[in-house]
């Protein structure tokens, strides 16, 4: 029984040490923050809400970037340039961003995963705009 437990523990530790960073950023957040110190991220955007140690790495959960955005109603344009039939009603968006940062023992961000984000049909998502510095169109 002890041998099995030690084997399982060794396997878990070996797998926990196998973090990979592809080096290819999939979005503006990754391109800005991969390889940077986590302290800079938390100093700029606030502390994490939770953390879990996994071997030599720590996975931090962070949420922030709260914003209320008013989206005006959209209307058709008529041939004479006047406002026609309403296409969509005015609405309010409540935006926030949630990410999980995997940070190595030397406090460098090894991966950053978008957990909660608001996608946009054209242009950057809210997390890319807020954390990645991408500009909205």
| Strand order in space, largest sheet | 1-2-5-6
User: Number of helical runs?
Assistant: 4
Report the end-to-end length measured between terminal Cα atoms: 61 Å
Structural class: alpha+beta
Unreliable stretches? 5-22
What would the average pLDDT be, to the nearest integer? Answer: 81
Strand content: 35-45%
Radius of gyration: 21 Å
In which range does the helix fraction lie? 10-25%
Per DSSP E runs of 2 or more residues, the count of β-strands stands at 6
Walkthrough of the structure:
Keywords: Signal. By secondary structure, the chain is an alpha+beta fold. Helices cover 25% and strands 37% of the residues. The strands form two sheets. Strands 1-2-5-6 form a four-stranded antiparallel sheet. It has a two-stranded antiparallel sheet with strand order 3-4. Strand 5 and strand 6 form a beta hairpin.
Give the helices and strands, then pairings.
Blueprint: H1 2-16, H2 28-33, H3 38-45, E1 50-54, E2 57-71, E3 74-77, E4 83-88, E5 91-103, E6 109-116, H4 126-130
Antiparallel strand pairs: 1-2, 2-5, 3-4, 5-6
Short précis:
With 137 residues, this protein is α+β, with helices and mostly antiparallel strands. It is built from 4 helices and 6 strands, in the order H-H-H-E-E-E-E-E-E-H. The radius of gyration is 21 Å and the shape is elongated.
């Amino acid at each position: 029984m002890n041998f099995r437990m030690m084997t399982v523990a060794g396997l878990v530790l070996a797998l926990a040490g196998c973090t990979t960073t592809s080096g290819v950023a999939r979005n503006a957040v990754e391109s800005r923050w991969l390889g940077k110190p986590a302290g800079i991220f938390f100093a700029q955007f606030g502390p994490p809400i939770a953390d879990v140690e996994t071997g030599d790495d720590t996975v931090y959960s962070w949420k922030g970037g709260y914003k209320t955005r008013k989206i005006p109603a959209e209307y058709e344009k008529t041939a004479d340039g006047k406002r026609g039939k309403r296409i969509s009603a005015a609405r309010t968006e409540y935006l926030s961003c949630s990410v999980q940062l995997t940070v190595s023992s030397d406090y460098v961000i090894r991966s950053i995963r978008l957990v909660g984000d608001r996608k946009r049909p054209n242009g950057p998502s809210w997390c890319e705009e807020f954390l990645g510095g991408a500009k909205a169109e």
